[in-house]
């Protein structure tokens, strides 16, 4: 099997592992971390796949085959865990962790065998792979890496031994996410599957105890939520047949995740999830402080109306001839609110909440001037502090702002909307929601292409802010953001160039975006920026060139752009950072085409490299040493003909 084909198989294996998303709560962190670490290997595997240079085939193939074997074990383990009972996973945690340890050790050994020094991958990629290795070794050293939830383990043991304490049952049900009909049904089926695959052996007392434990949890949840029947686990038929049919046809997004019924008064909690007001009120009144669906801790004790969803539900009911569910006229404060002096989710709304609700109403107005003024006020509020960013996001501002990006024809409104999203993205937890939950990237790219100059600048800054999260880099690149960023870098104001440059640098760290950037014409723009009299974009241009030159297409285009003289000049007289990046570009070019070695020698680079290898920064020393080593190897190869670099230079 050829190296390229094997690399393709490895890439597909990693993608398959990343697609396994049903991580069971007791092992959720372990599985998610393993999946995330393996995803970090994708850029390196893509580099191996695309590499045209000859590599040490025997050692490389042996290492890649070993990696393929370890990835198969990792995939089997994640699938195995996704099908097990949650109760079993906790009670038999040591047995499961032994398998985790074995898989982690296999992955660490396989990655350690890869001859990285022969790959000539970029510093960023090498550091990324080294990070994965460090994390795997740390996980092995800690016996699995992640901490056990000892409280959950002890609680389950006590229930397993017959305890029926309601507080323990509540903790276990929440931590194992066994609070809904679906959850309980899946857990019951998982236990039955374990029984059916036992090969006919007597499951013994342990299985019976686990089934009894699950029944006790279900009985507790039934007390908490009376809409559960004993067997089978289905919602009670409290509606007429016609109404029941209507409920079955309700779109999933219109159902409350707690009651699974059409929401009458949808409200948003700080995690970004929406629930029916009465259901989430009861959840919080019972002392819970996490989001029922995601189990994320709620950062603030505020819920706000989801006006957009309420309107969509009303439209759906009208178009389907269904009477909209009646909403309580005056929601009562929860007992928690009446007994606490702190602000509560269901206390009478504060002036701040009333102001935000009024602004969100204006965003949905049909009057352009109201939309513009509301978006402008939200822009200022989101700029002020993290508290405002959390409250605005929890209030449902993000989807309304995203809608304005493409639905508003007013340039100023577009500018306010994209800048509001930029300011909201400063709060780390909002970055993921803006893209994954609310799909903001196409709208931001639209403004980047069509907006005013200031709106385009702020759209570029928004993409930079969002691309800090690795998963977002791929999404942004796939949405077509790179060509308009290249245009802004070429023709924008000085601030626009800075914003576009930082966004492009961040996006090009992801291997899949490098080719897109090269094909969008980024290299000629960067070369032009190197020659601007003011030199205000030199740092950014060199840093991006260093990343692009590690890509096969990038090497060709950068080499054809007559880059070697510029790189030698920067190595000779640039800032320490510019020397590093210029040397990084030369390393890639000279490894691809020996003619660049000859040209660099003719321009007098050797003395500069010797000086840099002795007195440069750590990264600069490494790059200079790589180049000097390449010169030495090239001369050795030419000795038989009696013509080294010096001799070839004389022929030019």
UniProtKB/TrEMBL annotation:
Sequence ranges of Basic and acidic residues compositional bias: 242-252
Function noted in UniProt: Functions as an E3 ubiquitin ligase.
Ranges where the U-box domain occurs: 249-323
Annotated catalysed reactions: S-ubiquitinyl-[E2 ubiquitin-conjugating enzyme]-L-cysteine + [acceptor protein]-L-lysine = [E2 ubiquitin-conjugating enzyme]-L-cysteine + N(6)-ubiquitinyl-[acceptor protein]-L-lysine
ARM repeats: 396-439, 439-481, 521-555
Molecular function per GO: transmembrane receptor protein serine/threonine kinase binding; ubiquitin protein ligase activity
Positions of the UniProt region annotated as Disordered: 229-252, 320-350
Name of the featured protein: U-box domain-containing protein 12
Pathway entry: Protein modification; protein ubiquitination
